[in-house]
Write a structure and sequence with these properties.
By secondary structure, the chain is an alpha+beta fold. About 55% of the residues lie in helices and about 15% in strands. The protein has a two-stranded antiparallel ribbon. The chain is rod-shaped and about 70 Å long.
């Protein structure tokens, strides 16, 4: 009986961890999709800077890197 209870608790904890990590992945995908949509709407020469709690994203559209490329820092 105790073994079955332990197995049930562990299964529940595993399911919770899977749901939490899957939610994080999905939120990241949605964030990236939003950035992609905003970048597509910007004219050449634009700069997109987005800040999140611990990260900063800077994208230069059609920068001075020449045709087909840009500089990566």
């Amino acid at each position: 009986m105790a073994l079955a209870s332990t197995a049930l608790v562990l299964t529940g904890q595993l399911a919770k961890r899977w749901i939490v990590s899957r939610t994080r992945v999905r939120l990241t995908q949605l964030y990236q999709r939003g950035v992609n949509e905003r970048v597509r709407q910007l004219p050449p020469g634009s700069v997109l800077v987005e800040r999140r709690s611990e990260d900063e994203l800077r994208i230069e559209i059609g920068g001075a890197g020449g045709a087909g490329g840009g500089s990566h820092e």
